[in-house]
Amino acid sequence: MHTAWAQAPIVIKFSHVVATDTPKGQAAERFKLLAERATRGRVKVEVYPNSQLYKDKEELEALQLGAVQMLAPSLAKFGPLGVKEFEAFDLPYIFPSKAALYAVTEGRIGKRLMQKLEPKGITGLAYWDNGFKHMSANKQLRVPADLRGLRMRIQSSTVLDAQMRALGARPQVLAFSEVYQALETGLVDGTENPPSNMYTQKMHEVQRHLTVSNHGYLGYAVIVNKKFWDGLPGDIRRQLERAMAEATAFEKTIAQRDNDLALAAIRKAGKTAVYHPTPQEQAAWRQSLLPVHRQMESRIGKDLIKDITRETAGR
């Protein structure tokens, strides 16, 4: 028996909750292509988009149990897992720019955070981008007071809960796959998302107003089951690491472009009025939301927040 060709390929199930045509969806497909090519078919990557396998809440557990090998959950998901430091990424206005963000994700802070996942049986491979989030609702949101009393969908995150409460809104936690219907039926009044998520999920069809608030960041961590990863032959792991580095560079280039295109497409669709706050209004948003940083110090870590602020200063 020729074991060389009879050897079954190593299968990596890669599950995520967004559409294939989002930055994350496209990068997952790119990783599949690069990984299979680099390992000459010794690895097969099966990508399951759009919550086909698991919804938001279930996917991390599935990874820890080894039911899937790879995920790219949003950074907010690690708080409920007990690694609260990741919630720093959810703090409103913590990253003044993409350059400031990369100083953190690609530097020592980003590395240190990934290491905190190891005791949970998780290995962090890369940070992927989506972009800065905007507020949307069925009424115009020019100033923070406009959110008062609105039911706003958030993903499960103590920080995002505090953020919405700071604006006088009523936060509602919902799985990403349920948001469109909740907006359509009026179960919630609005939400926050980068344009690419909003557009690919057709949320703009059920939201009359969008404010380009850039108030928060949405990013992901590509993670694998640690036992699975450590158990791979060394040469294969190195090839996969290279494929991931390439897929990550690709993901970052398309994330900004996709969000710009999605915002233009939302505008063109004509169902949603897109509003750009004036500098004074933008300052009012910041002023309303910056107290959330102090509020979350005991949870996320005062030193970490300080460290990030230092790292991003002047970028």
From TrEMBL:
Domain of life where this protein originates: Bacteria
CDD domains: PBP2_TRAP_SBP_like_1
Keywords: Signal, Transport
Keyword Signal in record: yes
Residues passing through the membrane, by range: none
The family this protein is said to belong to: Belongs to the bacterial solute-binding protein 7 family.
Protein's UniProt name: TRAP transporter substrate-binding protein
Organism expressing this protein natively: Massilia niabensis
